[in-house]
Design goal:
Elements lengths: L21 E3 H4 L3 E2 L4 E3 H12 L6 E6 L33 E7 L24 H13 L3 E2 L6 E3 L3 H7 L12
Helix pairs in contact: 2-3
């Protein structure tokens, strides 16, 4: 059984934060972003690995990453309102270990028929089957876990990832504000 964020069962997954820093993806890696995005350095390394597994004409396009607790999400289905226990049961984007992404052409535009994913947009039709297969094959091989209800949302090191991969603990807790 896969437990989905923000399920309270994820609170039972222990966290041993490894202290990896948040880095700004555009300035730290040869990856495309749709704006400033911060992620844990280990996740960025895995995204670079995933990029090397894709055909030359296909690029990852990173849309969102770390969101500080004060940054609201427009869709309540994506996140809970920040409260005093938010770091006891961290939401995926509070750890720096969750990323929203899609595929792009070499010119940086999203692949045809693909909508840019964002927390507040609601359901987004998945890209063409072939593109989705490329995405899941590359990211899965790099060690990321996909949220089954959101094709664009991938995790590494957070409680959701630990639950899916049956890791003994999450590697990332809440990032400092």
């Amino acid at each position: 059984m896969i437990v989905l964020p923000p399920d309270p069962c994820l609170a039972g997954v222990p966290v041993r934060d490894n202290g990896e820093v948040l880095v700004e993806v555009r300035t730290s890696a040869p990856l495309r972003t749709a704006g400033p995005v911060h992620l844990r350095s280990g996740l960025v390394d895995r995204l670079v690995t995933a990029q090397t597994l894709l055909p030359r004409e296909v690029r990852l396009l990173i849309v969102d990453g770390y969101r500080p607790p004060a940054l609201p999400c427009r869709n309540p289905a994506c996140a809970l309102a920040p409260g005093p226990d938010v770091c006891v049961t961290p939401l995926p984007h509070l750890t720096g270990g969750a990323v929203d992404l899609t595929l792009a052409n070499t010119d940086g535009r999203a692949s045809p028929g693909t909508t840019l994913p964002a927390c507040g947009t609601g359901p987004i039709p998945p890209p063409h089957h072939e593109l989705r297969h490329l995405l899941s094959t590359a990211l899965g091989a790099a060690g990321l876990a996909n949220h089954p209800a959101r094709w664009w949302h991938w995790s590494y090191g957070d409680r959701f990832w630990a639950s899916v991969t049956r890791a003994p603990h999450a590697r990332y807790g809440c990032c400092p504000p």
